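Blinded run. Sample ID left blank on purpose so nobody reads anything into the name before looking at the predicted structure. Input follows.
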Amino acid sequence: MNLTTALAVLGGVVLLALALHGWWRIRRLAPQRAALVAQGPHESDEQTTVPLESERVEPTLGPEDAPAAEGAVKLEDGLQPVTPAELAAALRSPPRRELRLDALIDAIVPLVLEHPITGEAALAHLPPTRRAGSKPFYVEGLDAETGEWEPIAIGRRYGELQAGVQLASRSGALNEIEYSEFVQKIEAFAEAVHARADAPDMLDVVARARELDGLASPLDAQLSIGLKSRGVAWSVSYLQQIAARAGFVPGVLPGRWVLPAGGEGEPPLLVLSVDAQAALAEDPQAAAVRECMLSLDVPQTPRSLPGGEPFAALHRMTAQLCDDLDAVAVDDHGEPITPEAFEAIGAELARLYEALEALDLAAGTPAARRLFS
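Blinded prediction complete.
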């Protein structure tokens, strides 16, 4: 046998051995494959089925993917779910922000910065008191991220600053001395933060202040109705019980109860008051009163409220307190207020609201509340 024949025979033997080995493996694995088929696709953790590209496989929901229970919002890991009631409450009560400067009622001084400044640096150099005489003044910054003017706050960065002093209030118009004090404080602040203060001319600012005060003063109405006892006098404690039953809460001053308007930080809707000396008296006889006052601050109270117009609320509360206290409603001269007089007061009140709106100082707006304070 030559070499070629020997190699051919050897190759055939190798091929036959490979074929026999393959047949033996197939026979060996057959029982295991049958067991897998009988076991089902979801009972084996050792085999993974890979779908063909032409097959469409819909995703399924496991225990972790199950839809959230009704009334909860699915959040990121580590956060607690929020119910719709909590979410609605958050939407109804947005974070309250301080009022920004208004060119209608403020004399504004731009502060041109050499470079952006942090809120911490600005707050460190602000004057300790933000008043010039009887007038408040404010400093705001242009937030570098949001692009909005806001009161100076820690953790923020500002590219521009501005300051403004209120032109008028219930104490009168801004005068020359008050404006000079404001400018001096702002210039010192501007120097500390490396800014340039461009203050308006004093004569122009004072003239604007007097004009604004002349327009606003006739519209500064505080409507008051007296409640006079028909018989015996009241003790202050008894009056407080009646006020609490009607929804009033104690105010800051003695002998003063306020009916909250509903919004956080908003002025009260109505005020019930008695003489402060009677409220502080230790002698029960001295504390007895025969008359109290129910008041509505017109510029501070919006023309329309969720529960109706403020004058209608005043009218209803007057009737309720008169019944509870056995009192009669009287005017400034002590004369009983007739239904016709109430109608006339309501008409005059409507004209006041319209006049305020014509000046862009609608009652209850931030500008009106600051101006009439």
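Unblinding after everyone has recorded impressions. Residues 32-97 have pLDDT under 50 and may be disordered.
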